[in-house]
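User: Structure with beta-D-galactopyranose, tokens only please.
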Amino acid sequence: MVRNFGRKAALTAALMATTSLAQAAEVEVLHWWTSGGEAAALNVLKEDLAGQKIGWVDMPVAGGGGESAMTTLRARVTSGDAPTAVQMLGFDILDWAEEGALANLDAVAAEEGWDAVVPAALQAFAKHDGHWISAPVNVHSTNWVWANKALLDELDIAQPATWDDFVAALQTLKDAGKTPLAHGGQAWQDATMFDGVILSVGGVEFYTKAFIDLDADALGSDQMLEAFNRMATLRSFVDDNFSGRDWNLASAMVINGEAGFQIMGDWAKGEFINAGKVPGDDFLCFRVPGSDGAVSFNSDQFAMFSVKDEGAQGAQGEMARAIMSPAFQAAFNTVKGSVPARTDVPNDDFDACGKQGMADLAAAAASGKLVGSVAHGHANRAAVKNAIYDVVTAHFNGEYDAAAAVEELVNAVEAAQ
Ligand code: GAL
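Assistant:
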């Protein structure tokens, strides 16, 4: 009897130990990758981790650009229930690190030699006080245009090389009764177009002065007036139903030939690929005309929130290690539309747009033309980013003319600092 009871107790204890181990070897991942292309890329990560026996608890928060995800994250952390791994961008990572909320990834970074292969521009956000606090999974960039090739061919539109060519191409589409520019009227999408427009007006010099240095003269300059005028021009080429539309539905309009162009980061390529489309044959990718040579980047990183449980810590470390492996970086980024977050991944597996993205990134980094995306939190902390969003969106929706928008921008940025 006693022996039986003892055995049963031991069995139960063993079972409990296994269960808690099994539970510990999992990560709860908060992310905003909910579109078709994004979900396909996320699956590459899920499967990679499953292969290593790391469980996945999914915590998707829809909303491109991640604003809603960051609101959910704040609520979870406030209630003492932080997810273990979180998709994050730029200055948000540094903010959480300053709050002391993030785990230190130095051990896995040292074992895997991250210092030597992660570009300095990404380390600026992946390290805090000299310690690794996140694992960069990719590099996206925002100054891209996506085009439906068949539609352009049909209307005899060549790939636009200058801003004026681009406007002429948009007009040709409009005259043909097509939607020239597929766009979703959400603040972060307006701001994403603005990244490319700023570069097209004044290159990295103007972009840096205005949005990195937050120089009041640059913010209030004639170049800024021209940028808002260009935004108004773009506004005149979107369809009547643009307001509130999700970015991937705008991509779908280009994919199915309803619209000619979309200005969007290269996550849009993930939608084209997911729809079975081929760059060069079905769609074109090119830099916002006038912004060639410059790259406004954002890098999705996974930050790990500090946890006490050693099993969970182990799973976080393994997830970080998996994310940074060269094979995974190639497999994931070919699906996601982005390019690898390490400099030593061969470009063989990438399509024409991916190869161009990798080459552009390397060239921009070498020539000082790589700038953090304003729209995606790589130029400023959230308060300034949101102040810029507000003005850009109010102008795009007709609340201000270009001159008033310039004035509002100067004031809003000053107030937000
Ligand atoms: C960006 C993110 C990308 C992409 C996009 C749309 O902020 O970096 O990975 O998902 O939002 O959701």
